[in-house]
Amino acid sequence: MTLEITNARIVGKQGLYWLRVGAGGTIEAMDTMEKAPSDGEPPQLDLAGDWLSRGGLDLQINGALGFAFPDMDGQHQHQLSEICQWLWMQGIDGFLPTIVTTSVAKIQKALAAFADFMDQQQAQIQPTNAAKVLGVHLEGPFLNRQKCGAHPPQHLQTFDVEHIKRVLGDRAEIVKMMTVAPELDPTGEGIAYLSKLGIRVSLGHSMATYEQANRAFQQGATLVTHAFNAMPGLHHREPGLLGAAMVHPHVKCGAIADGVHVCPTMLQILLRASEYQRGVFLVSDALAPLGCPDGEYPWDTRAIAVKNGTARLSDGTLAGTTLPLLAGVKNLVRWHLCDVETAIALATHTPREALGEATIAPTQPATLLRWHWDATEQQLTSQRLLADRQKEKC
Fold first, then answer.
1. Which long-range contacts (CB under 8 A, 24 or more apart) does 382-385 make?
2. Are 70 and 102 in contact (CB under 8 A)?
3. What is the CA radius of gyration of the chain?
4. CA atoms within 13 A on the CB side of 111
5. 3-49+361-393 in CATH: which number?
6. Catalytic residue list
7. How many Cα atoms are found within 13 Å in the side-chain-facing hemisphere of 262?
8. Pairing state of beta strands 280-283 and 252-256?
9. Model confidence pLDDT, tens digit, residues 135-166
């Protein structure tokens, strides 16, 4: 059944729009309301000025529903399928399951299992109303020991082409993003090799100077992993990795908007300096207890304690969060760091740009979110549209 959506506001576009969604679940046409057809035959959904976006993309998520992605193997396909369906209900269209530093054998086992699962999704063996695994984000093992944080140092590797090949094995094609410390690659051969493979290089868990970071950007790095965290802070005489990224016209920084990883004031500085949508995208960096109540949970050979959505190791080291991605959007608005349109874009539009994907346009899947701003309550809410014609709160 064809459906027309009217009076929608779309990120990055001026005025109100109409869209026609075909029976196949794709956007067939869209234009301004002034050019909307007047026949009125298809059923219509009037958004009355609410925002419309595609679902969120989470480029750094470590697990959910009690399952950690580094533990992925052929026996956990069902758990991953449940996570994909749950993330869809949270408003997520796709994600990069993130494998943190672990043994090479475990990385390769996980990559093989994710590759099989992606093949099943491509063949639509998995449910349609489920977030898609877009590839894998390897966060490590080429990280600086001084900034490895919760990553187990015994599994860190020397950053060179030989070790990259050893880690990737024959599954390089599903790795879409890799976090590395550029100062460990002084010749730049490692970053250049990853870029040639089509892997987006993100700098993080690093002590890189401003000069080292800029050299890495010249060699092909385009992203920064969880800005401010696991890297030196901004300094007026040494801007460092983050300073270099904030002023670079072609680099985007991932940011965690839970209010714990980064103070909202520092997020505001990052947003303003990086020109908002040009240089920032939100990530959850959520751990396996995402979707679970607070408590203590296993994490590799250790344990993490989750309290009020923040996960820490027993020594107090910040390990991650259990805040869903779209909650970060609502935080940005609640903290008055940006307008509603920008906040929505940082979880839906900018991550797609970081991966080279398109946003709302004809021929794109109509996996849409409706966002409503209640000026009286000062509250932003979102819900799924066109998920088997059901509306689902996100």
1. 382/91, 382/326, 382/329, 384/55, 384/88, 384/89, 384/91, 385/5, 385/45, 385/52
2. yes
3. 21
4. 22
5. 2.30.40.10
6. 285
7. 29
8. parallel
9. 999 999 999 999 998 899 999 999 999 999 99
What is the b/e burial string over 22-45, where b = at least 16 CB atoms within 10 angstroms of the residue's CB?
eeeeebeebeeeeebeeeeeeeeb
Q: Which residue has the tokens 């903290």?
A: 335
- Give the list of residues 6+ apart from residue 138 with CB closer than 8 angstroms, or none: 98, 99, 107, 167, 175, 177, 178, 179
* Contact (Cβ atoms closer than 8 angstroms) between residue 207 and residue 144: yes
Pairing of β 368-374 and β 51-54:
antiparallel
What does the buried/exposed string (b/e) look like for 360-377 if buried means 16 or more CB atoms within 10 Å of the residue's CB? beeeebbbbbbbebeeee
pLDDT band at 261 (very low <50, low <70, confident <90, very high): very high
Q: Which two tokens stand for residue 159?
A: 């950053």
Residue 361: pLDDT band with limits 50, 70, 90 = confident
Q: What's the pLDDT tens digit per position in 67-93?
A: 999 999 989 999 999 999 999 999 999
SS (H, E, C) the chain: CCEEEEEEEECCCCCCEEEEECCCCEEEEEEEHHHCCCCCCCCEEECCCCEEEECEEEEEECEECCEEHHHCCCCCHHHHHHHHHHHHHCCEEEEEEEEECCCHHHHHHHHHHHHHHHHHHHCCCCCCCCCEECCEEEECCCCCHHHCCCCCHHHCCCCCHHHHHHHHCCCHHHEEEEEECHHHCCCCHHHHHHHHCCCEEEECCCCCCHHHHHHHHHHCCCEECCCCCCCCCCCCCCCHHHHHHHHCCCCEEEEECCCCCCCHHHHHHHHHHCCHHHCEEEECCECCCCCCCCEEEEECCEEEEEECCEEEECCCCEEEECCCHHHHHHHHHHCCCCCHHHHHHHHHCHHHHHHCCCCCCCCCECCEEEEEEECCCCEEEEEEEEECCEEEEC
Tokens 């408003």 sit on residue: 91
pLDDT of residue 58: 98
CATH topology classification for 55-355: TIM Barrel (3.20.20)
Confidence tier at 300 by pLDDT (50, 70, 90)? confident
Which one-letter amino acid corresponds to residue 39? D
pLDDT at 354: 95
Would you kindly state where each structural domain of the chain is located, as residue ranges? Answer: 3-49+361-393, 55-355
- What is the C-alpha separation between 221 and 215, in angstroms, rounded? 9
